[in-house]
Here is the input.
Amino acid sequence: MPKGGRKGGHKGRARQYTSPEEIDAQLQAEKQKAREEEEQEEGGDGAAGDPKKEKKSLDSDESEDEDDDYQQKRKGVEGLIDIENPNRVAQTTKKVTQLDLDGPKELSRREREEIEKQKAKERYMKMHLAGKTEQAKADLARLAIIRKQREEAARKKEEERKAKDDATLSGKRMQSLSLNK
Here is the structure.
């Protein structure tokens, strides 16, 4: 035999895999043998004829499988010594049916900060549109100054155009008067 007590595998041979049905059958056979041994130890002739006991033993096997999920295996001397540590939290596995997906989900710090940042930005934009922020007040003042400058420029332009029209009209009158003479 090779090291470690393993059987030597041959390179050319095909591997043989056990099907799930065969594994289930083997497990059932082992459970059946264990039940028969327990019945023989208790006094086999009375237990073999009682169908209720067989039914209970089948149910107990199923419940033992469920109980194994909840019990933790203790390592080392943990089984011998009771530990009274209030900070120690026993890890329990939750089943899918026990998970609370509908409850409020706790956000991480980054997610919380991101949401707060978005809300603050929205509040600022509302205040800005209402004209209550300092930046909005400065913008409105600047717009008012620009509006006045444009009104003055438009007024000057209008006056210059009128003056030009008057000058051209008076110039034409002079020409027409001089031509008439």
Summary: The first helix runs from residue 20 to 48. Residues 108-180 form one domain.
